[in-house]
Amino acid sequence: MLLSQTLCLCFALALSYAAPTLHDVMMADHGHDHHEDQAHHSANPDRCDGIEFDAIAPDEKGNSFFFKGDHLWKGFTGPAQVSSAFFMELDDHHHLGHVDAAFRMHNKEKPEDHDHIFLFLDDKVFSYYNHSLEEGYPKDIQLDFPGVPSHLDAAVECPKGDCNSDSVLFFKGEEVYNYDIATQSVKVRQWAHLPNCTSAFRWLEQYYCFHGHNFTRFHPVSGEVNGAYPKDARHYFMSCPKFGHGGDAKVPKCSEVTLDAITSDKSGKTYAFTGRIYMRLDTHRDGKHAFPIARTWKEVTDGVDAVFSYSDKIYIIKGDQVYIYKSAAPSTLIEGYPKSLTEELGIEGPVNAAFVCEDHHIVHIIQGQTMYDIDLSATPRTVAREAPLPISGIEAGMCGPDGIKVFVGSEYYHYETPRILAFSRIRPEPKTITPDMMGCVE
């Protein structure tokens, strides 16, 4: 399942140019002509022209940076800015300020490096956190990454689970250097079937090799490429006129956000559904992004009524039908589905919301202002209990470690347990959906 018809671009905000920095003043004090520096940076590249990126990396906050020459783009929309406005010391050590390669470190065993951005320039490496250069940098690449060559083409992190151990993949020409962070050992491979990568990017647990204005998705261990590649990056990783899908969409106001369903699976992946799109809410390290529902659950083409997770499966309810998918990627529809609500859960539709609490076997189904409890471990499945609710108009619900959230329009109500939701007669104060929750704007 690839980045087809992605709407993720609508969740990044355009950036404005930065004001003169302390670096500009310091350079002027040392005889550096500020006007010469401005002229040096005057050529403002446009990534919609089909350029080739030098490097791509996210920072610790999930902002993705696309580097080209002495400029970069922050996020998937907005104009280019001078790289030294974000990574000031690049110009101190190399006037051109270009970047050969970059990646965000994944190494929880070493907190002093975890989530740092490492930038590679010729034979030097820079380590940044919160856009501040760490003390002692830049260093020779060999001091931090023994066995890794200079003048790299690309780099990308590969956490344990994707690779056999926390690793970094370095690309130079046709060779790929797999660097094991813990042992500092290097294995060199040649992936002849993969184009020479000028930049590489791990995004939403997938790996992308960028070459020219195209990209190819690959497996980080074998280098295997599946699917029709290459693809034009302008359709997927940036907002360009006449390219992509939904590139003109606006960032919604939080007061305009309404949910049709929300759920979290056993692995911690949290999905929110509205209309024909869904958003991963747990991917703060990569930012929040929206996609068509059919991208992941291809048989569900016209939105959802309710979604819940149970026993490593995701149940999607639409109309009087239930679709059951394996939670593990790629999401695969269980053979024999969809089935009717009556056959699967012993109730008739429509359903407004549904949720299951972790390590419990009861699905709580909300229809109108009534909640029905159904034991998923029973055969056949039938309604075990029903209770009137103190709130009307519930459209989505989820049970998490902090309790129950039920959503009504752009607000939600919090209860500690399903029982309190069912039997409380005092309505709590509603809370509003926030930018941190849904990537909206206030």
Structural features:
442 residues; mainly beta; Hemopexin; 2 domains; five-stranded antiparallel sheet; four-stranded antiparallel sheet; 33 strands; disordered N terminus
Please give a structural write-up.
The chain has 442 residues and is mainly beta. The protein folds into two domains: 48-235, Hemopexin (4 Propeller); 254-432, Hemopexin-like domain (Hemopexin). It is 10% helix and 34% strand. It contains eight helices and 33 strands. The strands form eight sheets. Strands 5, 6, 7, 8 and 9 form a five-stranded antiparallel sheet that branches. Strands 1-2-3-4 form a four-stranded antiparallel sheet, with no helix packed on it. A four-stranded antiparallel sheet has the order 10-11-12-13, with no helix packed on it. A hairpin with a 2-residue loop joins strand 30 and strand 31 (403-408). The chain starts with 21 loop residues before the first helix and ends with a helix.
Brief digest:
This protein is mainly beta and 442 residues long.
Architecture (CATH level 2) name of the largest domain: 4 Propeller
The named CATH superfamily of the largest domain: Hemopexin-like domain
Mean pLDDT: 85
Instruction: Tell me the fraction of residues in β-strands, as a range.
Output: 25-35%
Give the biggest beta sheet.
5 strands, antiparallel
The unreliable regions are 1-40
> What share of the residues lie within helices?
under 10%
Radius of gyration of CA atoms, rounded to a whole number: 25 Å
Alpha-beta content class: mainly beta
Which shape, going by the Cα principal axes? Answer: elongated
Number of strands: 33
CATH class of the largest domain: Mainly Beta
Number of helices: 8
Number of domains: 2
CATH topology of the largest domain: Hemopexin
Keywords: Disulfide bond, Glycoprotein, Heme, Iron, Metal-binding, Repeat, Secreted, Signal, Transport
Disulfide bonds: 48-240, 158-163, 197-209, 357-399
Hemopexin repeats: 50-90, 96-148, 194-240, 256-300, 301-348
Main location: secreted
